[in-house]
Design brief:
The chain is of the alpha/beta class. The chain has 13 helices and ten strands. Strand 9, helix 11 and strand 10 form a beta-alpha-beta unit. The mean pLDDT is 96. The chain binds 5'-O-[(R)-(carboxyoxy)(hydroxy)phosphoryl]adenosine and zinc ion.
Length: 371
């Protein structure tokens, strides 16, 4: 059963063909980073235009790489939200038109559900390939952590049908957003996560103790805006502010510096600040996820979304799985960041369950999920 997945919720135009929800025949991602990096963040109008420019090419390329004729598809799965409305509309309208013209079934997939299915998909692929990996068992607690989201869900399955209960979510910035904003403040460019991940290795994470992030009410909720502001106070009105501005100007002039170049343009104090900030975010994400797993009495943990690429986060979850007996599943980096294979995989189950979309399927910037 071949499913075409289409994903365009943010700044990645992606299409993929997945067979039986368990084998990736192709996964094509057109990144818009070069378009947005000079603005230090995503410019929604530019993102929509880039999606329009790329969508047809990306879908054609996914079919070509998979050696699949579009007529052979069993169905089309498209991200319906949440995300940037202009971006979502491009993929959704394209998928709808394709389904209509080919008389194929269409399903709408929630982007967060897609991130959760990235874990299940990769686990199925690994086990089918004979890799000695444990099954990503359900029920599980899933942390979805990206530039737009930081949420914890309880994921359960019954007879091929998945259910999601939201346990906590960020009350302000998403973790990836905090990485991106701190990187911008320090003149490190966009996206901030990968750069901070690299530079933090050269800093002392114990240099600044940002303390634990305290939450009133639901202790499984997140909040990163206070931490971001604490970083700002350590920069504003200090020599680090001038250093950051110099770095921003230098970066703009030299294009894309190598990680070594960038490190050479950071003082020890800046590197310590970066390492301490990253360590505080990672500690908070890991602690709340483990607390959620404890509270739900599950030992299976899924982590996905762009921030799941973070090397310290991966290491900390690995340590927790060894020390505390959790089974932690984190997809490879290509399946952690936005992609369409995860949408096709989630869509496969909806197609099988007959949860088809009709002509009323609409793009939605926010959709309640797991509530
Ligand atoms: O899932 P994703 O591709 O798009 C959204 O749905 O938001 O995630 C992108 C986010 C960005 O904020 C980026 O800075 C962050 O993921 N990110 C990272 C790393 N790689 C990407 N954050 C921390 N460490 C990384 N290595
Ligand atoms: Zn995402």
């Amino acid at each position: 059963m071949l499913v075409l997945g289409i994903e365009s919720s943010c700044d990645e135009t992606a299409a993929a063909i997945v067979a039986d929800g368990a084998e990736i025949l192709s996964s094509v991602v057109a990144s818009q980073i070069p378009t947005h990096e000079k603005y230090g963040g995503i410019v929604p109008e530019l993102a929509s235009r880039e999606h329009l420019r790329n969508i047809e090419k990306v879908v054609d390329e996914a079919c070509r790489r998979a050696q699949v004729r579009i007529q052979d598809l069993a169905g089309i799965a498209v991200t319906e939200g949440p995300g940037l409305i202009g971006s979502l509309l491009v993929g959704l309208v394209y998928g709808k038109a394709l389904a209509l013209s080919l008389a194929k079934p269409l399903v709408g997939v929630n982007h967060l559900e897609g991130h959760i299915h990235a874990v299940l998909l990769e686990n199925r692929i690994a086990r089918a390939g004979g890799k000695p990996v444990e099954e990503a068992g359900l029920p599980a607690v899933a942390l979805v952590v990206s530039g737009g989201h930081t949420s914890l869900f309880l994921v359960e399955e019954s007879c091929g049908s998945f259910s999601y209960k939201r346990l906590g979510r960020t009350r302000d910035d998403a973790a990836g957003e905090a990485f991106d904003k701190v990187a911008r403040l320090l003149g490190l460019g966009y996206p901030g996560g990968p750069v901070i991940d690299q530079l933090a290795r050269a800093g002392n994470a114990a240099a600044i103790d940002f303390g634990h992030i305290k939450m009133k009410g639901n202790s499984l909720d997140f909040s990163f805006s206070g931490l971001k502001t604490a970083v700002l106070y350590r920069v504003r009105g200090t020599p680090l502010a001038a250093e950051s501005e110099e770095r921003r100007v230098w970066r703009n002039a030299c294009g894309k510096p190598t990680p070594d170049d960038l490190r050479a343009h950071c003082s020890g104090e800046t590197l310590d600040l970066i390492a301490s900030f990253q360590s505080a975010v990672v500690r908070d994400l890991v602690e709340r996820t483990l607390a959620a797993a404890d509270a739900m009495r599950v030992d299976s943990i899924f982590v996905s979304g762009g921030v799941a690429c973070n090397s310290l986060l991966r290491a900390r979850f690995r340590e927790a799985s060894r020390a505390q007996g959790f089974r932690v599943h984190i997809p490879s980096t290509v399946l952690s960041t936005d992609n369409a294979a995860m949408i096709a995989a989630a869509g496969y189950y909806k197609l099988q369950a007959g949860q088809l979309a009709d002509a009323t399927l609409a793009a939605r910037a926010s959709i309640p999920f797991g509530v």
